[in-house]
Amino acid sequence: MDFNLNAVSFIAEKNFSRLDIKKTYDIMILGGGPAGLTAAVYCIRKGMSTGIIVNEVGGQVAWTSGIENYMGYRHINGVELVQKFKEQVLQFGIDYEEGRRIESVSSGPMKGVVLDDGRSFSSRALIIATGKDMRRLGVPGERELTGKGVAFCSICDAPFFSGKRVVVVGGGNSAMEAVHDLAPIASRVIIVQFLESLTADRVLIDKLESYGNVEVLYEHEVAEIRGGSSVESVEVRDRKTGKTSSISAGGVFIQIGLVPNSGFVKGVVSMNGSGEIIIDCSCNTSEAGIFAAGDVTTVPFKQIIIAGGEGAKAALSACEYVMRLT
Amino acid sequence: MDFNLNAVSFIAEKNFSRLDIKKTYDIMILGGGPAGLTAAVYCIRKGMSTGIIVNEVGGQVAWTSGIENYMGYRHINGVELVQKFKEQVLQFGIDYEEGRRIESVSSGPMKGVVLDDGRSFSSRALIIATGKDMRRLGVPGERELTGKGVAFCSICDAPFFSGKRVVVVGGGNSAMEAVHDLAPIASRVIIVQFLESLTADRVLIDKLESYGNVEVLYEHEVAEIRGGSSVESVEVRDRKTGKTSSISAGGVFIQIGLVPNSGFVKGVVSMNGSGEIIIDCSCNTSEAGIFAAGDVTTVPFKQIIIAGGEGAKAALSACEYVMRLT
Predict the structure, then answer these.
(1) A203 at the B interface (CB within 8 A)?
(2) Chain A residues within an 8 Å CB radius of B36
(3) A10 Cβ partners below 8 Å, 6+ apart?
(4) Which of A201, B83, B112, B275 is the most exposed place for a label (fewest CB within 10 A)?
(5) CA dihedral angle for residue B82, residue B83, residue B85, residue B88, rounded to 10 degrees
């Protein structure tokens, strides 16, 4: 049942075509996490002409190390599970596009999707499964130094900061998890927390005391990240005094939560205050023929198997919608 | 990642305790299909004191041969997937009971569950994931001869009827699939259909012509199944004339649809006209602290990955409920 990653790449090369701007798809799927990839398998097996636009395969799953709550695998790492999902989609032969962002989406009898490279595609139904992305600080230096010391995924990137001074921004669970990934290998970890206390689970906070190299700056915020070819310092502002100081650091992990990747569909479908797309139990959005699934929606819990189930639901709802049209 | 079934049995023996009537469980899960087993993994990992009562492990999945739409496996058979699910639950150590039916359930601050052997258990929250079961004919001989020629699962049992005359009751997709499992090996297949035509998908009906040993009795119904140590004949009634005749047969496959396993909870939670438990998108039923997931509910589509996702949702909703209590 197992296969190696080379085999996956081989099948991948062989079995997919790029999206065709001249084609009218029955269903276009946006997103390549568990929801989008599951939706793809269901749409193809129903005989729908299906396209899928993926920015990053696996979404948040690819940032996860050990997974023990995806049924069927007692323990599997995120990258491995994502490859299995991708492989399962590509075995059917699908029009597939990777590494592209969605610029905008339009509703109507024919749904339109415009990509960041200007190409546009049309389909009878649309499934939005673009998931969530890391929230950015929006300060000078953040964008320029991303991948050069500014990081958003401690599971992926912590090992690169061995022996270095590192700033972790945030005080919730994901920030504490980054600290636990970093403290054993970094020379020093400085937590910059906006509020006057940490908001993570007690058990994660208590564990901080076991490290001798962690300090917390409460009620501070990052004003700027400075560096040339890589991060050199982080400018922080004391929120009580307004005074700015500089922390020498080789890395900054920004762990201030997640935001839905739904900006491109603003004004087209209804969303809640957090930017999540509002769906009913069958994954219908407010717009006929536009369905949504997974972490980008109001589904109550965000888990791989839940996103997978929601992707299947959205796909079957979309198939019913398309079949009613013809 | 793979393991053999002996290893599973070994772990199974080692890691679970039977349910304890003296214990007050945080969460009791009813059902051992994809929804119930997924719920179990989530409840245990959240640190809840959890029990699970299973009639048949895997539910409908165990009757399925090839599965290609469960994400993570390009192709797997039902029994193998079910074993992986069970193994994943039992690795954590859980109070587990197999081969028991639920007699009744009661609501209130403490939920009660009574088994068919008279033992009763109490818990703060309840997750009902008892799935669907094959619909029975309710005719004389059906119950007595079940397992002695009366069968409900052609995938499981067709091979036992090689060279025999077999009756298939029903005219929908599952009946046609039984015919396709049986016709190549049985000496003759007689379809007994209540209506004046078959209701299965065209493609399945068309394929019947390729067999020389299949006949259909339209507008007939089964009146009785006769036999001693095994099925010997099926008494059928012509619905137009009322005349009864006898078909000599060594087997009867009853394929007349599915019914929710929800009888034991009638009057406790709200159901729709088909006996499905009505849930909202968070798997809440009409009764506080009673949650439901999977095919026993009003969830719009019945699929393994959807049932799994619903089980996870029900578990996380139940955990939140229990945590709010304390």
Answers:
(1) no
(2) none
(3) none
(4) A201
(5) 180
Q: A194-218, pLDDT tens digit by residue?
A: 999 999 888 788 888 899 999 999 9
What residue of B is the nearest CA neighbor of A46? B69
Residues 274-303 of B with CB under 8 A from A: 280-282, 298-301, 303
Residue type, B16: F
Token pair listed for B192: 């007994």
Query: Cα separations (Å) of A124 from A90, A129, A151, A154, A280?
Result: 22, 16, 39, 40, 20
pLDDT at B257 > cutoff 60: yes
For residues B46-84, one letter each, b for 16 or more C-beta atoms within 10 angstroms of the residue's C-beta and e for the rest, the string is: bebbbbbbbbbbbbbbbbbeebebbbbbbebbbbebbbb
Is A72 in CB contact (< 8 Å) with chain B? yes
Strand partners, B76: B67
pLDDT tens figures, A57-86: 888 887 776 788 899 999 898 889 989 999
Q: What are phi and psi of A228, to 5 degrees?
A: -105, -95
B34 part of contact set with chain A, CB < 8 Å: yes
Report whether pLDDT(B64) > 90: no
Closest CA to B19 of B117, B130, B129: B117
Chain B residues close to A280, C-beta within 8 Å: 281
Q: Is A100 exposed, middle or buried (0-12, 13-18, 19+ CB in 10 A)?
A: middle
Interface with B, mutate which of A67, A305, A317 (most B CBs under 10 A)? A305
Task: Let me know: does A126 contact A288? Beta carbons within 8 Å.
Answer: no
Q: What residue of A is the nearest CA neighbor of B302?
A: A313
For chain B, the residue count is 326
> How far apart are the C-alpha atoms of A58 and B194, rounded to whole Å?
48
Nearest to A1 among B2, B299, B316 (CB): B2
Q: In this structure, are residues A107 and A289 in contact, taking their beta carbons and an 8 Å threshold?
A: yes
pLDDT < 50: residue spans in chain A: 1-13
Residue B279 in contact with residue B299, Cβ under 8 Å? yes
Q: What is the pLDDT of residue A14?
A: 52
Instruction: Write the single-letter amino acid at A301.
Output: F
Q: Which two tokens stand for residue A177?
A: 């998890």
- Shortest distance between the Cα of B164 and any Cα of chain A, in A, equals 35
A323 Cβ neighbours under 8 A, 6+ residues apart: none
Which residue bears the tokens 């997750």?
B127
Per-residue pLDDT, B10: 41
The structure tokens listed for B5 are: 């079934």
- The span from the CA of B168 to the CA of B189, in Å, is 7
**Adjacent-strand bridge partners of B95:** B17, B51
Which residues does chain A have within 8 Å of residue B45's beta carbon, measured at their own beta carbons?
68-69
| Better pLDDT: B75 or B124 | B124
| CB nearest to B301's CB, from A1, A81, A316 | A316
Of A122, A86, A124, which is closest to residue A319 (Cα–Cα)?
A: A124
Paired tokens of B277 = 């438990």
Q: How high is the ipTM of this complex?
A: 0.82
| Residues A113 and A28 sit within 8 Å (Cβ to Cβ) | yes
Contact A69 B41 (CB under 8 A): yes
